[in-house]
Design goal:
Strand content: 5-15%
Helix content: 25-40%
Number of strands: 4
Largest sheet: 4 strands, parallel
Number of helices: 5
Radius of gyration: 15 Å
Length: about 140
């Protein structure tokens, strides 16, 4: 079973991070790829530009952002590919650039993956893929 954790990309990489996934659509400012130590850049599972900007500009609340991104993520075909990529990992660290560690889209990603895992655990049968696998998650 995969253990998922969240961490700011600007924090030092650690062995305990395991498989490091940058889950931001834009590359973090002031950080070069060597220092980032990422295994995967999963920008295709991040919030849409419109949703991200609505939240950033205060047009919607955190609760609204959470709900809308949750729905957006469940409807995103790249989610299945991402989940298939991380299934065999022991530890996965979702990395993000934002300063707010409580109100981050990575929390929504983590919650959605947990919901899918719980659905699978409840039946005792692995959940079928949500979507047809695609290669929308890009590596660094």
């Amino acid at each position: 079973m995969v253990n998922i954790q969240m961490k700011r990309i600007y924090q030092d990489a650690a062995d305990a991070d395991g498989f490091r996934v940058l889950a931001d659509r834009l590359w973090p400012r002031g950080l070069n790829k060597d220092r980032a130590h990422i295994d995967l850049w999963a920008k295709d599972i991040t919030p849409s530009t419109a949703l991200r900007e609505d939240y950033r500009r205060g047009r919607i609340t955190w609760s609204d952002f959470y709900d809308q991104y949750h729905s957006e993520l469940l409807g995103n075909p790249a989610l299945n590919s991402f989940i298939q990529t991380i299934l065999d990992k022991k530890n996965v660290t979702l990395l993000f650039a934002g300063k707010d560690t409580e109100h981050t889209h990575v929390k929504v990603i983590t919650d959605v993956i947990k919901e899918i895992r719980l659905a699978s655990d409840a039946t005792g049968v692995p959940s079928p893929p949500i979507f047809t696998p695609s290669n929308n998650c890009r590596t660094s």
